[in-house]
Write a structure and sequence with these properties.
By secondary structure, the protein is mainly alpha-helical. The chain is built from seven helices and no strands. 86% of the residues lie in helices and 0% in strands. The mean pLDDT is 81.
């Protein structure tokens, strides 16, 4: 008996999910698809431009967060992939040099905060692609750096979307 009920129930659920998904995609196609893709593409490079653009387009804050987070995460993974390829290319033709003493502000920050500071705080201030480029230059383990950059992107997108949403309510 149960063998007949479960497949019938699963067919009904699949049918309702398909109808809901189809309605959602049709609604987005008609209204906001270009704006959502613009926000996502801007977020893959710089979140500071993406979130205000989403509010300028009149998108819902949840949509702005989703598009900017997905775009920002895509930017992290593209920058990590390209950074790894660039590091391999330069190391192939790199001559061995004598080690210089590591002094300066960047090295002091690196010694104090490490991967977390570069991945999280760097993403919050200058952006994930720049943080990843600096990390590739410092020969940081890419897996840890990408993890902290992803966390930084999610926090940054949520923080700036909330600030933008309540800032728009003031006016």
């Amino acid at each position: 008996m149960l063998n007949k009920i479960i497949p019938a129930l699963m067919r009904q659920i699949r049918k309702k999910l398909f109808i809901s998904f189809h309605f959602f995609c049709t609604y987005l196609n008609k209204h906001y698809m270009l704006e959502i893709f613009t926000v996502a593409l801007l977020a893959s490079v710089e979140v500071y431009a993406a979130i205000p653009a989403g509010f300028a387009f009149g998108l819902h804050p949840g949509t702005i967060f989703s598009a900017s987070a997905l775009g920002g995460l895509a930017g992290v993974f593209v920058a990590a992939f390209l950074g790894d390829r660039i590091r391999i290319f330069f190391n192939r033709y790199k001559k061995v040099k004598e080690e210089k003493p590591k002094t300066g502000m960047i090295y002091r920050i690196w010694d104090k905060y490490g991967v977390i500071g570069l991945g999280f705080l760097g993403t919050m201030t200058v952006g994930a692609p720049v943080s990843l480029a600096v990390g590739v230059g410092f020969n940081v383990p890419l897996k840890k750096l990408v993890t902290w950059c992803c966390i930084g992107v999610l926090v940054r997108c949520s923080l700036f979307t909330i600030i933008g949403h309540y800032g728009m309510k003031l006016f």
